[in-house]
Prior knowledge:
By secondary structure, this protein is α+β, with helices and mostly antiparallel strands. It has helices at 3-24, 31-48, 56-69, 75-87, 95-108, 118-121, 140-145, 165-174; strands at residues 112-116, 135-139, 157-162, 177-181, 189-194.
Amino acid sequence: MDKENLNVSHLAWCGLIALNTARRDGIATSPAQDNLFLTRWLATAEKQRRFPRELASDISWLLREGREKGLSADLPGKLDYLWRAGSGNLQAQNDLFRLQHALQALKLTGWIYMVLAESEWSGRRQLRLSPTVSGIYINRNALDSGFDEHGRQRIPLSARITGDLAALDKLLHRSGWRRKTTDAEGTPLYMLVADVFNAE
């Protein structure tokens, strides 16, 4: 495990322990109070520089999410994702679980995530994508046939992706997935493959 993931995992673990302690002590007794508690906890951590400098952008991002989105920021969910992604527990899960986890994390950051039927994927009714909107769109047929009964990937997943590719790559990497470019010119078409995927 690399040092950055270890540090992010430690930050998330500390936040989750602080929240669970606050819940046990009756300080946080509702989702709204959870968000308020974590926003204050992050603000204090940032002000007191409790964590290494390389985590400053992660703390700022979480703090901004909590302040701007309020309850919909789901700070406990974001911390849980960061903890699982960095602690090694996530890597022990099957390919499908790790992909779902990464896609859920993308949604938490404001990305659009949609599974498209064949008629929306291509043809006259093909969904038009805006290059200025961060979104990931997966072909339903590929998703349905892409995994075996144990959740292991069988075929690369076709995906149309728009937006901040660097941010997407970072989240996918934490979940043991990667994005591969295709030969399709003029379209945002990619293939998603698990790190351990081996095309035979």
